[in-house]
């Protein structure tokens, strides 16, 4: 169990605002912390601002005509806005984009090898890391010679995480790993994330719409709505919170409800009152 009071903070996002195209205000003062050795979940529905937050952290907003206009993002004492995405990777922060993004025409193994490009480590060290990735993802070993474009969605998600691991990251920003995958595969991938966290000490900031799964695997969670953090706390507490149960887990004292029923209530949420 991660003792939150004892751990060092790797990443601190303080009150950031993000604007797209000079006018569209998308993040309206988001603050969060990622402790060393933790799995931190960033939760929320469609368009809440999860991806925008991750891209702000890894300094990838420029290509989207977006900018951080207020607040600060500090990784180990350095402002990330002053670092290029590549410099950030060298400091141990890497993002796994939403929608997987493997190079379709390369094999799985070639994809993994592209993840080692920022490293000056010798061949033997890179080979050892490749072996480590295959140990965590046995399916990737089986598919190592397959062209990535022909592998399944789950294998491509594993490939994207495996490629990030090849940069020897301290922190992985993982965007919506469950997207489009069958429940069993989602469990498998989250199980591997947990192993990587516990055995390799990789810290995660995990953006997810799938609150149920994310809160089972994470230590701490933040819930975003319309660009604001509306609730945060240890994952175990969020799982038991009545509002989270009702609006995000689809369960309430009245019994199980489908997500659609819950959303159609349109009752004012208690935490916004
Ligand atoms: N490049 C962009 N230009 C303008 N608006 C954008 C851009 N990217 C995202 N947005 C808007 O910013 C808001 C937050 O989007 P974001 O992708 O961060 O949400 P999200 O929480 O990741 O959602 P999802 O769960 O659907 O991935 C949305 O209203 C979206 O339409
Ligand atoms: Mg997103």
Main pleated sheet: 6 strands, mixed
Strand segment tally: 12
Question: Structural class of the helices, strands and pairings?
Answer: alpha/beta
The share of residues in extended strands comes to: 25-35%
**Would you identify the CATH H-level superfamily?**
P-loop containing nucleotide triphosphate hydrolases
**What is the highest CATH level, the class?**
Alpha Beta
Shape designation: globular
CATH structural architecture: 3-Layer(aba) Sandwich
Termini gap: 34 Å
**What string, H for helix and E for strand, traces the elements in order?**
EEEHEEHEHHHHEHEHEEHHEEH
Low-confidence region ranges: 256-260, 262-268
The total tally of domains equals: 1
Helix content: 25-40%
> How large is the radius of gyration?
19 Å
Contiguous helical run count: 11
Strands of the largest sheet, in order across it? 6-7-8-3-9-10
Mean pLDDT: 89
GO molecular function: ATP binding; ATP hydrolysis activity; branched-chain amino acid transmembrane transporter activity
InterPro entries: AAA+_ATPase, ABC_transporter-like_ATP-bd, BCAA_Transport_ATP-bd_LivF, P-loop_NTPase
Domain ABC transporter: 11-251
Keywords: Amino-acid transport, ATP-binding, Nucleotide-binding, Transport
């Amino acid at each position: 169990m991660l003792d939150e009071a004892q751990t060092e903070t790797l990443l601190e996002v303080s009150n950031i605002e993000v604007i797209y195209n000079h006018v569209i205000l998308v993040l309206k003062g988001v603050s969060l912390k990622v402790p060393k050795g933790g799995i931190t979940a960033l939760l929320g529905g469609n368009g809440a601002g999860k991806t925008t937050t991750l891209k702000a952290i890894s300094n990838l907003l420029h290509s989207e005509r977006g900018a951080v206009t207020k607040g600060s993002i500090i990784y180990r004492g350095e402002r990330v806005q002053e670092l290029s995405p590549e410099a950030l990777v060298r400091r141990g922060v890497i993002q796994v984009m939403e929608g997987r993004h493997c190079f379709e025409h390369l094999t799985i193994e070639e994809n993994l090898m592209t993840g080692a490009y920022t490293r000056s480590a010798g061949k033997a060290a890179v080979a050892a890391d490749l072996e480590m990735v295959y140990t965590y993802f046995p399916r990737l070993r089986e598919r190592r010679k397959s062209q990535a474009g022909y592998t399944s969605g789950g294998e491509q998600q594993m490939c994207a995480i495996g490629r990030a691991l090849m940069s020897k990251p301290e922190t992985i920003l993982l965007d919506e790993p469950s997207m489009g995958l069958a429940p069993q595969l989602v469990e498998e991938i989250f199980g591997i994330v947990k192993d990587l966290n516990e055995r390799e000490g990789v810290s995660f900031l995990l953006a997810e719409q799938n609150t149920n799964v994310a809160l089972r695997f994470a230590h701490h969670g933040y819930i975003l709505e319309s660009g604001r953090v509306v609730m945060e706390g240890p994952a175990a507490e969020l799982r038991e919170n009545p509002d989270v149960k009702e609006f995000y887990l689809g369960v309430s004292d009245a019994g199980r409800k489908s997500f659609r029923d819950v959303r159609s209530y349109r009752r004012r949420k208690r935490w916004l009152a």
